[in-house]
Design goal:
This protein has helices at 18-31, 38-44, 49-60, 66-80, 83-86, 92-101, 114-124, 145-154, 168-176, 204-212; strands at residues 5-8, 105-110, 130-133, 161-165, 180-184, 199-201. The chain is an alpha/beta fold and 214 residues long. Strands 3-2-1-4-5-6 form a six-stranded parallel sheet, sandwiched between helices.
Length: 214
């Protein structure tokens, strides 16, 4: 069956922001004397920040609360991970244009806030009108709800959609929703588990080739 819905994650797939978040977290972990375990960190990607800090506060018996650490994280993101300064992942707008030409309806399913998603779409003039935020579902990734809602807004069944994700949590959620998954790798980031990926790409140019062959 020809897939007609194409759902992009945003951070790390559209916006080149995951590396900025990683750098902020590296700094915070060092200040808190938390050893950076790449395997554990990979499990945080795609989730909301409160889940990460709750786990770390409990694991390391930190005196700081998860709420205060999340607030500090957001403060640093506003300085070091400004969406307008992160830039887009190389080739993503071209993939979007080519996907539309191939007949795909495209959208975004992101754990980020609605305000940030709309800010990125507006600033980078992305050809996207359908999107879902983690704020709109009870549980975000790896729960499949965000992907099912994205498919509904695109007007397709989940089985008729492909998802582009850079985080294992997103891949797990997309597969649980019944979708096909393209994993986008980034050698700058901790390696992700790829068991849920149907296709693996190291660039948006490779994603375009996958779409053309479908």
């Amino acid at each position: 069956m020809k897939k007609r819905g194409l759902i992009f994650d945003m951070d790390g797939v559209i916006l080149d922001s995951e590396i900025r978040y990683f750098e902020v977290h590296q700094q915070m972990f060092e200040e808190l004397s938390i050893p950076l375990d790449p395997v554990q960190y990979a499990t945080f990607m795609g989730k909301t920040g409160d889940e990460m800090w709750e786990e770390l506060v409990d694991q390391h018996q930190l005196k700081e609360s998860a709420v205060s650490l999340l607030e500090e994280e957001h403060r640093r993101f506003q300085v070091h991970a400004i969406p307008e300064e992160c830039g887009l992942k190389i080739g993503v707008k071209h993939v979007m244009q080519q996907a539309k030409a191939l007949g795909y309806d495209i959208g975004i399913a992101s754990s980020s806030s609605l305000q940030k998603i709309e800010r990125v779409i507006r600033h980078y003039e992305l050809p996207i009108t359908h999107y879902v935020s983690g704020e709109e579902v009870v549980r975000s990734k790896p729960d499949p709800a965000i992907f099912r809602l994205a498919a509904e807004r695109l007007g397709h069944t989940p089985e008729n959609c492909l998802v582009i994700e850079d985080a294992a949590n997103g891949m797990i959620g997309a597969k649980a929703a019944g979708m096909e998954v393209i994993a986008l790798l980034d050698d700058r980031m901790p390696a992700q588990r790829l068991e849920q990926a149907d296709h693996i790409a190291r660039s948006h140019a490779e994603i375009e080739e996958i779409l053309r062959k479908r």
